[in-house]
Amino acid sequence: MNMKKLFIISLILMFLLVPVSFADDGDYTIPSAIKDITVLDDGSTVISEEIVYDIEGRINGVYRDIPLEANQTITDISVDTPGFYNTVEVIEDNHRTRIKVWLYADEDKTQKTYDAKVAVTYKYTFNKGVKIYNDIAELQYMTWGKEWDSGVQYLESNIHIPGSNENTEYWNNPDDYVVSSEWTSSNTLTTISEKLGSHTSYEQRILMPTSYFKSTENAQVINMDAKAQIEQDQKKYQDDRNFRNMLISALTWVLGLFMILPLGIYGLFGREPKIDYDAEYEYDLPTDATPIQVNSIVIGDVDSIDDNGMYATILDLINRKYIKVISSNEDDTIIRQTQEDTSNLKSYEKSLLSYLSKFAINGDISLKSIGDTEDPSNYKTFKSSWENQAKKEVPDSMIKRFFNSKGSTIFNIFAALLFIVSIIMFFVSVWIDMPMSRFIVLFALAMILFIESIVMFCIPNTFAGRWTPEGKEFHDKWKSFENYLEDFSLIKERPPASIEVWGRYLVYAAALGCADEVSKNMKDYFDLNGFSEEYFNNSSAVYFAYYGGFSHLDTSFSSLTAASSDSGGIGSVGGGGFGGGGGGTF
């Protein structure tokens, strides 16, 4: 049984239970976090966060991710680690600032941190976080972000506003974890929360008079009245929370009953065949499958192609000299289509070349400009068409040879039946007159069935489907090849035979979704052995990967795939106007 299936089974069995994790190097918990948020009268916010990491094992350090939107910025960053020495690295991109703190036990910075409790204080100024409307000013701050892998046992926030608390309103979204929240002085709101779980978001929202601000230089100014709408949104949010909590507490036991049948389907149809192959690593391409075939069969749903399939195709075209890398640095990568004859290319390859050519200026294509200039809806249309073309590279006969989808088909039929039954039960509970107690039970059952059906639709088809022995060996060999590419110690021991082989391996690394890690291993290997730039310039694919081309490729296309987000206007309840994010160890 592979790790993906084991994870899915655990997820289903423990849907309402607190996950139990086992300690390993880099595991950590957060006993406490104390935050001071000072709103200045120019709209900027000075934030100090003392986060205590209780670390098990040996780590290099810790990091803190702070999300950014539109024209928001972070300035005046400082870090303090009492009792430990540190080196701070600030990594910025369009969507976040990462504060990376390398920790050391000695002044010479040679000893890593091991089994320690470390208090790290991050201090910074957040600009353009406060929103100033015509009738009110708003601080909507994500005090704790859902990106944290650890929960926090004790969370204290002290929010200081630039005026008195008269004529103010505040909310905690949600208030489930709040032990106390009160004005401890005329301008300071102190809130104590306890036992927030991992991947849990917690937002605080304060409305205050616009007269508190002498300047709007570092605030978002939004020309609309917002107070009444915000109050209405908060009331609806609280009503929804109360109703949801009632359903959860009343019907937790029912959920377990509905988990049995999907597991039964897995038991009948999804268990993998036993094969003789058990190698942990493959040191060369294990089959003659194309990158698109590998992506379609090995990654995610069988017979589907994800973004990595497109990236692999672009890199393959670079490697085969249909695309030339003109330049690549930390800011952008410039490519150009060559004069190579394209008549022998497959339709999905020609289509991709044609799409990229739309962004050419004097023949040069900036990867960064694709994300900046393309209409997301146009990209979505192209991507759907391209995926259909690329699927022709993976014929049905090949899929059937490797994978038996019978269990997955039954699983999806059952999910569809659950969905239909949940809708019927919903309308019955709403439109038929019945005692309130029966209404609650029926409505909750409808909700449970609905949620379960959606979860089942989202589960990969490899869960209830079954590999054939040949397909299982194909899948495992390519995963073993991925293991080799991601293991730097093995790359040092048994490196690819030539720069051309490196280029080919990078194409398949992209198809397998591990291009970033393999590019890093390649760069480290080249640097370790002192290879000159002339050496890796002999392969366009290697040059592309060495100088960060994958990052630019992923950033551009990911930004088009993701839903557009506008920081203007009234923020949704629980969405957090700014703040949040997460962090961890590395």
Query: What's the average pLDDT?
Result: 84
* Alpha-beta content class: alpha+beta
End-to-end gap:
29 Å
What is the tally of beta strands? 25
Share of helix, binned: 40-55%
What proportion of the residues form beta strands (DSSP E)? 25-35%
- What's the story with the biggest beta sheet? 7 strands, mixed
- List the total number of helices: 18
> What integer value in Å does the Rg equal?
27 Å
Topology readout:
Elements: H1 3-13, E1 27-39, E2 45-56, E3 58-59, E4 61-67, E5 73-80, E6 85-92, E7 96-104, E8 113-114, E9 117-127, E10 131-132, E11 137-144, E12 152-160, E13 169-173, E14 178-185, E15 188-196, E16 202-208, E17 220-221, H2 227-258, H3 260-270, H4 291-298, H5 307-319, E18 323-328, E19 333-337, H6 347-357, E20 360-361, E21 364-366, H7 367-373, H8 376-390, H9 396-402, E22 403-404, H10 406-431, H11 436-458, E23 466-467, H12 469-486, H13 488-493, H14 499-511, H15 515-528, H16 533-536, H17 540-546, H18 549-561, E24 578-579, E25 582-585
Parallel strand pairs: 1-12, 10-17, 11-24
Antiparallel strand pairs: 1-2, 2-9, 3-8, 4-7, 4-25, 5-9, 6-7, 10-11, 11-16, 12-15, 13-16, 14-15, 18-19, 19-21, 20-21, 22-23
Helix pairs in contact: 2-11, 3-10, 4-5, 4-14, 5-14, 5-17, 6-8, 7-18, 10-11, 14-15, 14-17
